[in-house]
Amino acid sequence: MRNQIVAGNWKMNKTHAETEKLLSELSAKLPNTHAEVMVAPTYVNLLGAVQELESSTIEVIAQNMHFAKNGAYTGEISADMLQDIGVETVIIGHSERRAYFGETDAILKKKVAAALENNMRIMFCFGEELEDRKSGNHFNIVENQLKEALFELEAESWQRIVLAYEPVWAIGTGETASPEQAQEMHAFIRETITKAYNETIANEVSILYGGSVKPGNAAEIFSKPDVDGGLIGGASLVAEDFVAIIRAI
Ligand code: PGA
Description:
Elements: E1 5-9, H1 16-29, E2 36-40, H2 46-52, E3 59-60, H3 79-84, E4 89-92, H4 95-100, H5 105-117, E5 121-126, H6 130-134, H7 138-150, E6 161-165, H8 179-196, H9 199-204, E7 207-210, H10 215-222, E8 229-232, H11 239-248
Parallel strand pairs: 1-2, 1-8, 2-3, 4-5, 5-6, 6-7, 7-8
Bound molecules: 2-phosphoglycolic acid.
2-phosphoglycolic acid is lined by residues 9, 166, 171-172, 210-213, 231-235.
């Protein structure tokens, strides 16, 4: 059975006080669920979040990390630093990192390797742009993103990978992929992994959908057989909305 996961990517939002408030609201309202629930606050609020959620089932995860162990990389943080404060999962390859911070497939591959070397879990994000979808190139783009960053990994490493398919045109735009479009792509991703590895790995990896998931559309998207949950941006910043999305799974 694949793990089902609902993760909130808070991006560059929430001060320290706002982070504490949202976490305490979430803890108080968290429904009973079989799904793993995760939140990704900003770096400066990670330690506080880990401490505040010490006795909670909600996992605190990081939005990004550098691939080097340490050194002269101003503004960056390492896998060791994350683990030292109790963070064991990191988002890698978010489209905003690719688009605004120049993260190429080659860089992402190094980040994946560094996280795995530290035995961390990776939530690997990928997805096509609007032009790719319009020109019918979306399957090729997704296949290449996976191939470039992940397909040279040892089979065992896949136990530490969670995939998040996030079509760029649906992120923060209010426009969601239809449940059918999400299902079609998720099935394609499993097929691609089956070809590169085998059916067991393809069937065991959790594939989340991300891009304007809201309380109103979550249940339908999550009902698709190859969709194992969601990576939620905007709607994860409001406790009631995030809780409603968790209920939907
Ligand atoms: P969104 O963001 O839910 O605000 O579209 C999703 C994401 O970027 O992970």
